[in-house]
Amino acid sequence: MVRILYSSLLYLITPLIWLRLLWRSRKQPEYRQHFGERYGFYGQQVPAKLIWVHAVSVGETRAAQPLIEGLLAQWPDHRILLTGMTPTGREAGQQVYGDKVIQAYLPYDYPGAVDRFFRHFSPVFGVLMETEIWPNLLAAGKRRQVPIFLANARLSARSARGYGRFSALASPAFAALTGVAAQTAGDAERITALGAKVVEVCGNLKFDVTPPADKIALGQSWREAVGPRPVWLAASTREGEEPLVLDAWRQLAVPDALLVLVPRHPQRFDEVAGLLQQRGLPFVRRSQSLPQHDTTVWLGDSMGEMAAYFAMADLAFIGGSLLPLGGQNLIEAAACDCPVVVGPHTFNFKQATEDAIAAGAAIRVDDPEMLALTVNRIFGQKLNLAEMRESAGRFARAHQGAAKRMLAFIARWLDPAGR
Predict the structure, then answer these.
(1) Furthest CA-CA distance within the chain
(2) Which of 226, 324, 355, 408 has an alpha carbon 20 to 30 Å from 144's alpha carbon atom?
């Protein structure tokens, strides 16, 4: 009965969903493409043996790489269906996997749409990345006897409380999962409390993602072009953070330093360019040219090049953490040997952040003023900066191995006929 009410609500808000898509398509016209897939209508032909992996957007798509490569190696006679929900995630899938995978949008969680999805693709089993809990989708998978795993699963205390308020709907969904490969013991405990029956701690897949060699080389070439100037990267900044970062930048007492500013969402590139113009800061865009000798800010208006930005930088601030947004992941920075500074709000990646701080690979600050003071201090102590860089690399390497553990976990719980 609760799921019927949930589905009825979905149908009622359908016009709002359409309006949201149209609104987002103003800046990203790609949202108007493949519209039928969002309702379970697909045209592509389907191979006989298909493994389904769902990665909602860019971060999850890239994090899934070691797992997808492992799935292809362990089940070589199967193809991978990679589903997502955003055009940027779909573009990232094309960049990372090319023709190795079939791509489609996962439909909205309408009963009919998810039934059409399973009827069309008939996956042998499915893997949902991180925390994608859709009641009708999981109920349909269970009804059709499709094993579905939650991989690289994370659930903050705040999110767990949210699910707990709707336990009559959430608990059957968690219980429908065949197995959950959690990132940390805390994640496992919270997910078990919500109804999941088989949960194992396997670590964080993002530690297993190797930065692309071509992107590292690109970042190093940028660095050579910039020369000996200190480079501070503000990575994956969110709306409202750029003014705070620029306030901290104004207080920086490091001669000839360059700020590389990379907003997380591409639809905000022009907005941030307007902010830089408004503040009268000499800047150029990545899409236009390399930084010049008089460039104060280099605006990173590109997709798929974050590893290059980290390889270029001496020090990075990880966005989403100065405001109560939960922070972005610092693991990619560490994998590129780039030490980081984070703000007070890192609840989305609590364990990874705390471990990085304990390892000497990251420093936490409370506000923009403390951010400026900390960056000044780090740049003024070159020996300390070199030690942080070494600590970042050690931290990243010490936590690898999650993909191997997740593959073993999935294999143990699959029916032998599905292997």
Answers:
(1) 66
(2) 408
